[in-house]
Amino acid sequence: MTVHGRVLLVLGDSLAFHGPERPEPADDPRLWPNAAAAALGARAEIVAGTGWTARHAWHALTSDPRVWAVLPAVDALVLGVGGMDTLPSPLPTAVRELIPVLRPEALRRRVRAAYLRAQPVLARTFAALPGGGPVALPPRLTVQYLERCRSAVLAIRPGLPVVAALPPPHRAECYARVHPGRAAGERATRAWAADAGVALLDLPALVGDHVLGGHGNPDGMHWGWEAHAAVGEACARVVSGGDH
Predict the structure, then answer these.
(1) Percent of the residues in the chain that have a pLDDT greater than 70, as a whole number
(2) Which of 147, 187, 166 is nearest to 57 (CA)?
(3) Which burial class, exposed, middle or buried, applies to 105 when counting CB atoms under 10 A from its CB (0-12, 13-18, 19+)?
(4) Has residue 2 got a pLDDT over 90?
(5) Pick from 183, 173, 235: which is nearest to 206 by CA?
(6) Which domain of life does this protein belong to (predicted)?
(7) Of the candidates 48, 61, 70, 239, which has an alpha carbon nearest to the alpha carbon of residue 160?
(8) Which of 4, 38, 94, 158 reaches 20 to 30 Å from 178, CA-CA?
(9) Radius of gyration for the chain, computed over Cα atoms and rounded to the nearest angstrom
(10) What CA–CA distance (Å, rounded) separates 39 from 20?
């Protein structure tokens, strides 16, 4: 694959903009999309949000006019979503997403506190059961939305390089450090990528030791700058065709 040095469009989750201490401005050069773009002589356009799954990426692609504006200049597409899809979701995702709009404020605080208390307990309980319990987005839906993103962008920009990411590990206490859905998510992503001709960014290999060794953000999920640099370098290599 080749990139002509203009724009690297990254549809991502919070791993695209969250550093070792806090979320960072999207133009911070230490973030992995910007590190990848710099290595390619391009700039990164980061379209991402906290907790985003592949479904959120598809909605952004189809509903955000900022994405439409940048598409004519895009030289490579990175689907940096799918990891959050594999996280335990013992309570419906819709419940979590509705908490911020609950009124009055006192009710919102109580519901949020109850949700945060219940999540690790239920995640650990479900993880011990066959199948590991529900995840934020089932693998079959993850790959459906990834394929929608890929095919939609290629309909506008035929032949554009496309890179996806394998779901990374975590050690987050808010999920009781369990991650039973990750393996199934990886299998589905690998199968889809092979069928679709999409290159893969192997995040478990790149950040596994970093995250599981406690070298990233204290939340046990987001990365330190060392991991961002490694992912950015690997992403540039995959986009440019040096690693498949």
Answers:
(1) 97
(2) 147
(3) exposed
(4) no
(5) 235
(6) Bacteria
(7) 239
(8) 94
(9) 18
(10) 22
Beta carbons within 10 angstroms of residue 41's beta carbon: 12
Q: Which residue has the tokens 């979503």?
A: 81
Dihedral of the alpha carbons of 82, 88, 92, 93, in degrees to the nearest 10: -30
- Side-chain half-sphere CA neighbours of 125 within 13 A: 8
Residue type at position 7: V
Contacts of 3 (CB under 8 A, 6+ apart): 40, 42, 75, 76, 161, 239, 240
Angle in degrees, CA 71, 74, 75, rounded to 5: 150
Q: List, in order of start, the domains of the chain with CATH numbers.
A: 7-87+138-239 (3.40.50.1110), 90-134 (no CATH)
Query: What are the tens digits of pLDDT across the range 189-198?
Result: 999 999 999 9
